[in-house]
Protein backbone atom coordinates (compact mmCIF):
# COMPACT_ATOMS: atom_id res chain seq x y z
CA UNK A 1 0.00 0.00 0.00
CA UNK A 2 1.02 3.62 -0.46
CA UNK A 3 0.46 6.22 2.24
CA UNK A 4 0.88 9.92 1.55
CA UNK A 5 2.22 11.86 4.54
CA UNK A 6 0.00 14.67 5.83
CA UNK A 7 1.29 17.89 7.42
CA UNK A 8 2.26 17.30 11.04
CA UNK A 9 1.91 13.51 10.74
CA UNK A 10 4.77 11.69 12.52
CA UNK A 11 6.09 8.33 11.38
CA UNK A 12 5.21 6.60 14.65
CA UNK A 13 1.57 7.59 14.23
CA UNK A 14 1.50 6.20 10.68
CA UNK A 15 3.07 2.97 11.94
CA UNK A 16 0.43 2.63 14.66
CA UNK A 17 -2.33 3.33 12.15
CA UNK A 18 -1.34 0.29 10.11
CA UNK A 19 -0.18 -1.92 13.01
CA UNK A 20 3.42 -1.71 11.82
CA UNK A 21 6.68 -0.81 13.50
CA UNK A 22 8.57 2.35 12.62
CA UNK A 23 11.61 0.25 11.70
CA UNK A 24 9.64 -1.93 9.25
CA UNK A 25 8.41 1.15 7.37
CA UNK A 26 11.89 2.68 7.42
CA UNK A 27 13.41 -0.49 5.98
CA UNK A 28 10.84 -0.84 3.19
CA UNK A 29 11.33 2.80 2.16
CA UNK A 30 15.09 3.07 2.71
CA UNK A 31 14.76 5.72 5.42
CA UNK A 32 17.61 6.43 7.83
CA UNK A 33 15.56 8.85 9.95
CA UNK A 34 11.97 9.35 11.05
CA UNK A 35 11.88 13.00 9.93
CA UNK A 36 9.34 12.60 7.12
CA UNK A 37 7.79 15.52 5.21
CA UNK A 38 4.30 16.36 3.91
CA UNK A 39 3.54 14.87 0.50
CA UNK A 40 6.09 12.08 0.87
CA UNK A 41 4.94 8.64 -0.26
CA UNK A 42 5.51 5.66 2.02
CA UNK A 43 5.14 2.01 1.14
CA UNK A 44 3.27 0.19 3.90
CA UNK A 45 3.25 -3.61 4.27
CA UNK A 46 -0.18 -5.20 3.89
CA UNK A 47 -3.33 -4.58 1.87
CA UNK A 48 -5.75 -2.98 4.37
CA UNK A 49 -5.75 0.80 3.98
CA UNK A 50 -7.12 3.20 6.60
CA UNK A 51 -8.80 6.26 5.10
CA UNK A 52 -7.50 9.57 6.48
CA UNK A 53 -9.52 12.72 7.04
CA UNK A 54 -9.94 14.65 3.79
CA UNK A 55 -9.16 11.68 1.53
CA UNK A 56 -11.49 10.50 -1.20
CA UNK A 57 -11.73 7.18 -2.94
CA UNK A 58 -10.42 8.96 -6.04
CA UNK A 59 -7.19 10.14 -4.37
CA UNK A 60 -6.53 6.68 -2.93
CA UNK A 61 -7.24 4.97 -6.26
CA UNK A 62 -5.07 7.42 -8.19
CA UNK A 63 -2.17 6.93 -5.78
CA UNK A 64 -2.28 3.18 -6.48
CA UNK A 65 -2.92 3.58 -10.24
CA UNK A 66 -6.37 2.05 -9.95
CA UNK A 67 -9.71 3.36 -11.16
CA UNK A 68 -12.26 4.54 -8.61
CA UNK A 69 -14.66 1.86 -9.82
CA UNK A 70 -12.06 -0.89 -9.41
CA UNK A 71 -11.48 0.17 -5.82
CA UNK A 72 -15.20 0.56 -5.12
CA UNK A 73 -16.07 -2.82 -6.66
CA UNK A 74 -13.38 -4.66 -4.70
CA UNK A 75 -14.74 -3.17 -1.48
CA UNK A 76 -18.46 -3.40 -2.19
CA UNK A 77 -18.86 0.39 -2.11
CA UNK A 78 -22.01 1.44 -3.94
CA UNK A 79 -21.40 5.19 -3.86
CA UNK A 80 -17.68 6.03 -4.39
CA UNK A 81 -18.31 9.66 -3.45
CA UNK A 82 -19.14 8.71 0.14
CA UNK A 83 -16.26 7.47 2.31
CA UNK A 84 -15.64 7.86 6.02
CA UNK A 85 -12.37 8.83 7.70
CA UNK A 86 -11.07 5.90 9.72
CA UNK A 87 -12.79 3.31 7.53
CA UNK A 88 -10.66 0.44 6.26
CA UNK A 89 -10.61 -0.63 2.63
CA UNK A 90 -8.81 -3.36 0.74
CA UNK A 91 -6.23 -2.39 -1.89
CA UNK A 92 -6.59 -5.07 -4.60
CA UNK A 93 -3.51 -7.03 -5.56
CA UNK A 94 -3.23 -8.34 -9.09
CA UNK A 95 -1.81 -11.63 -10.25
CA UNK A 96 1.98 -11.56 -10.37
CA UNK A 97 3.43 -11.65 -13.87
CA UNK A 98 6.68 -13.32 -14.87
CA UNK A 99 9.12 -10.88 -16.45
CA UNK A 100 12.78 -10.44 -17.28
CA UNK A 101 14.64 -7.52 -15.76
CA UNK A 102 17.84 -5.88 -16.84
CA UNK A 103 20.08 -3.09 -15.67
CA UNK A 104 23.13 -1.32 -16.97
CA UNK A 105 26.25 -1.63 -14.85
CA UNK A 106 29.48 0.37 -14.91
CA UNK A 107 32.32 -1.83 -13.55
CA UNK A 108 34.49 -0.27 -10.84
CA UNK A 109 36.67 -2.77 -9.02
CA UNK A 110 36.55 -6.37 -7.85
CA UNK A 111 35.18 -5.75 -4.37
CA UNK A 112 32.59 -3.20 -5.48
CA UNK A 113 31.39 -5.25 -8.46
CA UNK A 114 31.02 -8.43 -6.42
CA UNK A 115 29.08 -6.66 -3.68
CA UNK A 116 26.79 -4.92 -6.15
CA UNK A 117 25.91 -8.04 -8.11
CA UNK A 118 25.34 -10.15 -5.01
CA UNK A 119 23.00 -7.49 -3.67
CA UNK A 120 20.92 -7.35 -6.86
CA UNK A 121 20.85 -11.09 -7.52
CA UNK A 122 17.14 -11.57 -6.58
CA UNK A 123 15.96 -8.64 -8.69
CA UNK A 124 17.85 -8.78 -11.99
CA UNK A 125 17.89 -11.27 -14.87
CA UNK A 126 20.51 -9.63 -17.06
CA UNK A 127 23.24 -6.99 -16.74
CA UNK A 128 24.47 -4.71 -19.50
CA UNK A 129 28.19 -4.17 -18.92
CA UNK A 130 28.77 -0.54 -19.86
CA UNK A 131 30.57 0.16 -22.13
CA UNK A 132 32.72 -0.60 -25.20
CA UNK A 133 32.86 1.77 -28.17
CA UNK A 134 34.45 1.70 -31.62
CA UNK A 135 37.00 4.18 -32.88
CA UNK A 136 36.85 5.54 -36.41
CA UNK A 137 38.60 2.40 -37.68
CA UNK A 138 36.09 0.00 -36.11
CA UNK A 139 38.37 -1.11 -33.27
CA UNK A 140 36.70 -1.57 -29.88
CA UNK A 141 37.85 0.08 -26.68
CA UNK A 142 38.87 -2.01 -23.68
CA UNK A 143 37.13 -2.34 -20.33
CA UNK A 144 38.16 -3.96 -17.05
CA UNK A 145 35.04 -6.08 -16.72
CA UNK A 146 36.24 -9.58 -15.82
CA UNK A 147 34.77 -9.46 -12.30
CA UNK A 148 31.42 -8.14 -13.54
CA UNK A 149 31.22 -10.95 -16.10
CA UNK A 150 32.34 -13.85 -13.91
CA UNK A 151 30.37 -12.69 -10.86
CA UNK A 152 27.37 -12.04 -13.09
CA UNK A 153 27.30 -15.65 -14.26
CA UNK A 154 27.90 -16.84 -10.70
CA UNK A 155 24.92 -14.84 -9.42
CA UNK A 156 22.70 -15.88 -12.36
CA UNK A 157 22.79 -12.38 -13.85
CA UNK A 158 23.38 -12.90 -17.56
CA UNK A 159 26.11 -10.49 -18.77
CA UNK A 160 25.84 -8.76 -22.15
CA UNK A 161 28.32 -6.29 -23.64
CA UNK A 162 27.04 -2.77 -24.26
CA UNK A 163 28.43 -1.18 -27.43
CA UNK A 164 27.97 2.59 -27.68
CA UNK A 165 28.92 5.42 -30.02
CA UNK A 166 30.58 7.39 -27.24
CA UNK A 167 33.61 9.50 -28.05
CA UNK A 168 35.26 12.52 -26.47
CA UNK A 169 32.18 14.45 -27.70
CA UNK A 170 29.74 12.22 -25.81
CA UNK A 171 27.26 10.16 -27.82
CA UNK A 172 28.68 10.91 -31.25
CA UNK A 173 26.27 10.82 -34.21
CA UNK A 174 29.16 11.51 -36.58
CA UNK A 175 31.00 8.41 -35.38
CA UNK A 176 27.83 6.36 -35.85
CA UNK A 177 27.34 7.81 -39.35
CA UNK A 178 30.95 7.02 -40.28
CA UNK A 179 30.73 3.39 -39.14
CA UNK A 180 27.20 2.61 -40.32
CA UNK A 181 27.69 3.91 -43.85
CA UNK A 182 30.93 2.04 -44.54
CA UNK A 183 30.36 -1.67 -45.38
CA UNK A 184 33.94 -2.67 -44.56
CA UNK A 185 33.85 -0.87 -41.20
CA UNK A 186 30.48 -2.44 -40.36
CA UNK A 187 31.94 -5.86 -41.07
CA UNK A 188 35.08 -5.12 -39.06
CA UNK A 189 33.09 -3.88 -36.07
CA UNK A 190 30.77 -6.90 -36.19
CA UNK A 191 33.75 -9.26 -36.25
CA UNK A 192 35.30 -7.39 -33.33
CA UNK A 193 32.04 -7.64 -31.38
CA UNK A 194 31.91 -11.39 -32.00
CA UNK A 195 35.49 -11.79 -30.73
CA UNK A 196 34.68 -9.69 -27.68
CA UNK A 197 31.70 -11.88 -26.79
CA UNK A 198 33.57 -15.16 -27.30
CA UNK A 199 36.76 -14.12 -25.52
CA UNK A 200 34.99 -12.59 -22.50
CA UNK A 201 32.13 -15.08 -22.13
CA UNK A 202 29.32 -12.60 -22.77
CA UNK A 203 25.89 -13.99 -23.58
CA UNK A 204 25.13 -11.28 -26.09
CA UNK A 205 25.38 -7.66 -27.10
CA UNK A 206 23.32 -4.54 -26.53
CA UNK A 207 23.77 -1.76 -29.09
CA UNK A 208 23.36 1.70 -27.57
CA UNK A 209 23.96 4.04 -30.49
CA UNK A 210 22.35 7.32 -29.45
CA UNK A 211 21.64 10.38 -31.56
CA UNK A 212 21.44 8.45 -34.84
CA UNK A 213 20.22 10.83 -37.54
CA UNK A 214 17.30 10.15 -39.89
CA UNK A 215 19.65 9.79 -42.87
CA UNK A 216 21.30 6.85 -41.07
CA UNK A 217 18.04 4.97 -40.51
CA UNK A 218 18.60 2.42 -43.30
CA UNK A 219 22.32 1.90 -42.50
CA UNK A 220 21.42 1.25 -38.84
CA UNK A 221 18.80 -1.30 -39.92
CA UNK A 222 21.37 -2.99 -42.15
CA UNK A 223 24.03 -3.03 -39.43
CA UNK A 224 21.65 -4.64 -36.93
CA UNK A 225 20.56 -7.24 -39.49
CA UNK A 226 24.18 -8.10 -40.33
CA UNK A 227 25.04 -8.25 -36.62
CA UNK A 228 22.12 -10.58 -35.89
CA UNK A 229 22.99 -12.83 -38.84
CA UNK A 230 26.54 -13.12 -37.51
CA UNK A 231 25.77 -13.70 -33.83
CA UNK A 232 22.39 -15.38 -33.41
CA UNK A 233 23.30 -18.69 -35.14
CA UNK A 234 26.00 -19.13 -32.46
CA UNK A 235 23.50 -18.60 -29.64
CA UNK A 236 24.38 -15.00 -28.83
CA UNK A 237 21.55 -12.54 -28.15
CA UNK A 238 21.28 -9.22 -29.96
CA UNK A 239 19.44 -6.27 -28.44
CA UNK A 240 19.23 -2.54 -29.01
CA UNK A 241 18.41 0.50 -26.89
CA UNK A 242 16.12 2.96 -28.67
CA UNK A 243 14.71 6.39 -27.79
CA UNK A 244 10.98 6.76 -27.07
CA UNK A 245 8.77 7.22 -30.14
CA UNK A 246 5.01 7.54 -30.59
CA UNK A 247 4.99 7.09 -34.37
CA UNK A 248 7.24 5.92 -37.18
CA UNK A 249 8.81 9.35 -37.57
CA UNK A 250 7.48 11.03 -34.45
CA UNK A 251 9.19 12.78 -32.89
CA UNK A 252 11.16 13.66 -36.01
CA UNK A 253 14.52 13.86 -34.22
CA UNK A 254 14.23 10.12 -33.48
CA UNK A 255 13.34 9.14 -37.05
CA UNK A 256 16.70 7.35 -37.38
CA UNK A 257 15.29 4.48 -35.33
CA UNK A 258 12.98 2.17 -37.28
CA UNK A 259 11.10 0.20 -34.62
CA UNK A 260 9.48 -2.13 -37.16
CA UNK A 261 12.66 -3.09 -39.02
CA UNK A 262 14.77 -3.34 -35.87
CA UNK A 263 12.10 -5.38 -34.12
CA UNK A 264 12.31 -8.05 -36.82
CA UNK A 265 15.99 -8.83 -36.23
CA UNK A 266 16.74 -8.21 -32.55
CA UNK A 267 15.97 -10.51 -29.65
CA UNK A 268 15.14 -7.61 -27.33
CA UNK A 269 14.44 -3.90 -27.65
CA UNK A 270 15.08 -1.61 -24.68
CA UNK A 271 12.81 1.45 -24.74
CA UNK A 272 14.58 4.43 -23.16
CA UNK A 273 11.34 5.80 -21.73
CA UNK A 274 12.90 8.59 -19.72
CA UNK A 275 14.70 11.93 -20.06
CA UNK A 276 11.79 13.84 -21.57
CA UNK A 277 13.40 16.41 -19.31
CA UNK A 278 17.11 16.03 -18.69
CA UNK A 279 19.85 17.85 -16.81
CA UNK A 280 20.93 19.77 -19.93
CA UNK A 281 17.48 21.24 -20.56
CA UNK A 282 14.64 22.93 -18.68
CA UNK A 283 13.23 21.26 -15.54
CA UNK A 284 10.28 18.89 -15.63
CA UNK A 285 9.19 15.28 -15.09
CA UNK A 286 11.80 12.76 -16.23
CA UNK A 287 9.35 10.06 -17.32
CA UNK A 288 5.80 11.48 -17.54
CA UNK A 289 3.30 8.64 -17.56
CA UNK A 290 1.34 9.95 -20.57
CA UNK A 291 4.51 9.90 -22.69
CA UNK A 292 5.51 6.46 -21.43
CA UNK A 293 2.00 5.19 -22.20
CA UNK A 294 2.08 6.65 -25.72
CA UNK A 295 5.49 5.09 -26.41
CA UNK A 296 4.34 1.66 -25.27
CA UNK A 297 1.14 1.94 -27.26
CA UNK A 298 3.13 2.55 -30.44
CA UNK A 299 5.81 -0.02 -29.64
CA UNK A 300 3.48 -2.97 -28.98
CA UNK A 301 1.73 -2.31 -32.27
CA UNK A 302 5.04 -2.29 -34.13
CA UNK A 303 7.33 -4.77 -32.36
CA UNK A 304 6.46 -8.21 -30.90
CA UNK A 305 5.65 -7.36 -27.29
CA UNK A 306 7.74 -10.24 -25.94
CA UNK A 307 10.81 -8.42 -27.24
CA UNK A 308 10.09 -5.16 -25.42
CA UNK A 309 11.68 -3.88 -22.22
CA UNK A 310 10.38 -0.73 -20.52
CA UNK A 311 13.17 1.61 -19.46
CA UNK A 312 13.04 2.85 -15.86
CA UNK A 313 14.80 5.97 -14.57
CA UNK A 314 16.64 4.96 -11.41
CA UNK A 315 17.82 8.53 -10.89
CA UNK A 316 16.53 12.02 -10.08
CA UNK A 317 17.48 15.42 -11.50
CA UNK A 318 18.19 18.50 -9.38
CA UNK A 319 17.98 21.74 -11.39
CA UNK A 320 19.32 25.05 -10.13
CA UNK A 321 17.71 28.32 -11.27
CA UNK A 322 20.32 30.99 -11.93
CA UNK A 323 19.50 34.66 -11.55
CA UNK A 324 19.82 35.20 -15.32
CA UNK A 325 17.00 32.71 -15.90
CA UNK A 326 19.23 29.83 -16.99
CA UNK A 327 19.00 26.37 -15.42
CA UNK A 328 21.49 23.58 -14.93
CA UNK A 329 20.80 20.07 -13.70
CA UNK A 330 22.72 17.38 -11.86
CA UNK A 331 21.73 13.80 -11.19
CA UNK A 332 21.02 12.11 -7.87
CA UNK A 333 19.76 8.71 -6.82
CA UNK A 334 16.08 8.52 -5.90
CA UNK A 335 17.07 7.87 -2.30
CA UNK A 336 19.32 10.95 -2.25
CA UNK A 337 16.48 13.09 -3.58
CA UNK A 338 14.05 11.97 -0.87
CA UNK A 339 16.70 12.31 1.83
CA UNK A 340 17.42 15.87 0.68
CA UNK A 341 13.74 16.82 1.07
CA UNK A 342 13.65 15.18 4.50
CA UNK A 343 16.86 16.85 5.68
CA UNK A 344 15.62 20.27 4.56
CA UNK A 345 12.06 19.69 5.77
CA UNK A 346 10.52 20.81 2.48
CA UNK A 347 7.17 19.41 1.31
CA UNK A 348 6.95 17.11 -1.70
CA UNK A 349 4.43 17.88 -4.43
CA UNK A 350 2.93 15.43 -6.90
CA UNK A 351 2.02 16.30 -10.48
CA UNK A 352 -1.10 14.29 -11.32
CA UNK A 353 -0.87 14.72 -15.10
CA UNK A 354 2.63 13.24 -15.37
CA UNK A 355 2.37 11.15 -12.18
CA UNK A 356 5.70 12.51 -10.98
CA UNK A 357 6.84 13.89 -7.60
CA UNK A 358 8.95 17.03 -7.19
CA UNK A 359 9.99 19.61 -4.61
CA UNK A 360 11.64 23.02 -4.35
CA UNK A 361 14.42 24.16 -2.05
CA UNK A 362 16.86 27.03 -1.65
CA UNK A 363 20.57 26.33 -1.26
CA UNK A 364 23.02 28.10 1.07
CA UNK A 365 23.87 30.64 -1.64
CA UNK A 366 20.23 31.63 -2.00
CA UNK A 367 19.71 29.82 -5.32
CA UNK A 368 16.37 28.16 -5.92
CA UNK A 369 16.30 24.49 -6.98
CA UNK A 370 13.66 22.06 -8.19
CA UNK A 371 14.09 18.29 -7.95
CA UNK A 372 12.04 15.88 -10.06
CA UNK A 373 12.26 12.21 -9.16
CA UNK A 374 10.35 8.91 -8.98
CA UNK A 375 8.62 7.36 -5.99
CA UNK A 376 6.18 4.59 -5.10
CA UNK A 377 3.26 6.44 -6.74
CA UNK A 378 5.00 7.05 -10.05
CA UNK A 379 6.58 3.60 -10.14
CA UNK A 380 3.39 1.64 -9.54
CA UNK A 381 1.87 3.43 -12.55
CA UNK A 382 4.75 2.25 -14.75
CA UNK A 383 4.77 -1.27 -13.31
CA UNK A 384 1.07 -1.60 -14.06
CA UNK A 385 1.78 -0.71 -17.71
CA UNK A 386 4.23 -3.63 -17.93
CA UNK A 387 1.47 -6.02 -16.87
CA UNK A 388 -1.22 -4.25 -18.88
CA UNK A 389 0.72 -4.46 -22.14
CA UNK A 390 2.19 -7.90 -21.44
CA UNK A 391 5.70 -6.91 -22.52
CA UNK A 392 8.85 -8.93 -21.83
CA UNK A 393 10.07 -6.91 -18.91
CA UNK A 394 11.85 -3.81 -17.72
CA UNK A 395 15.33 -2.42 -17.25
CA UNK A 396 17.02 0.58 -15.75
CA UNK A 397 20.00 2.89 -15.65
CA UNK A 398 21.89 1.94 -13.53
CA UNK A 399 22.88 -0.58 -10.84
CA UNK A 400 24.15 1.08 -7.69
CA UNK A 401 21.53 3.84 -7.53
CA UNK A 402 19.44 2.74 -4.53
CA UNK A 403 15.66 2.84 -4.95
CA UNK A 404 14.17 0.71 -2.14
CA UNK A 405 10.53 1.51 -2.94
CA UNK A 406 10.87 0.34 -6.55
CA UNK A 407 12.72 -2.78 -5.43
CA UNK A 408 10.07 -3.68 -2.84
CA UNK A 409 7.24 -3.26 -5.36
CA UNK A 410 9.16 -5.25 -7.97
CA UNK A 411 9.30 -8.21 -5.58
CA UNK A 412 5.61 -7.86 -4.77
CA UNK A 413 4.24 -7.44 -8.29
CA UNK A 414 6.42 -9.72 -10.45
CA UNK A 415 8.19 -13.05 -10.66
CA UNK A 416 11.73 -12.42 -11.91
CA UNK A 417 12.99 -14.90 -14.50
CA UNK A 418 16.47 -16.26 -13.86
CA UNK A 419 18.70 -18.30 -16.19
Supply the key terms.
alpha/beta, Chitinase A, domain 3, 8-stranded parallel barrel, 3 domains, TIM Barrel, single chain, 419 residues, Membrane-bound Lytic Murein Transglycosylase D, Chain A
What report would you give on this structure?
The chain folds into three domains: 2-90, Membrane-bound Lytic Murein Transglycosylase D, Chain A; 97-313 and 384-416, Alpha-Beta Barrel (TIM Barrel); 320-370, Chitinase A, domain 3, CATH 3.10.50.10. The two termini are 31 Å apart. It has 14 helices and 20 strands. It has 419 residues and is α/β, with parallel strands linked by helices. The protein has helices at 11-17, 22-29, 57-63, 68-74, 110-120, 146-154, 173-180, 183-200, 217-231, 259-265, 289-300, 334-344, 376-389, 404-413; strands at residues 2-4, 41-43, 48-50, 88-90, 97-105, 126-132, 158-164, 166-167, 170-171, 204-208, 237-242, 268-271, 308-313, 315-321, 327-333, 349-351, 356-362, 368-372, 393-397, 414-416.
In short:
The protein has helices at residues 11-17, 22-29, 57-63, 68-74, 110-120, 146-154, 173-180, 183-200, 217-231, 259-265, 289-300, 334-344, 376-389, 404-413; strands spanning 2-4, 41-43, 48-50, 88-90, 97-105, 126-132, 158-164, 166-167, 170-171, 204-208, 237-242, 268-271, 308-313, 315-321, 327-333, 349-351, 356-362, 368-372, 393-397, 414-416. Helix content is 34%, strand content 23%.
Question: Could you give the count of β-strands?
Answer: 20
Radius of gyration: 23 Å
User: What is the share of helical residues?
Assistant: 25-40%
In spatial order, strands of the major sheet run 5-6-7-10-11-12-13-19
Ends apart, CA distance between termini = 31 Å
Shape, please?
globular
- Mean pLDDT score: 96
State the low-pLDDT regions, or none: none
Largest sheet: 8 strands, parallel, barrel
Work out the helix count.
14
User: In percent terms, what proportion of residues is strand?
Assistant: 15-25%
From the helix content, strand content and strand pairing, which structural class follows? alpha/beta
CATH architectural label of the largest domain: Alpha-Beta Barrel
CATH topology of the largest domain: TIM Barrel
Classified in CATH, the superfamily of the largest domain is Glycosidases
Number of domains: 3
The level-1 CATH class of the largest domain: Alpha Beta
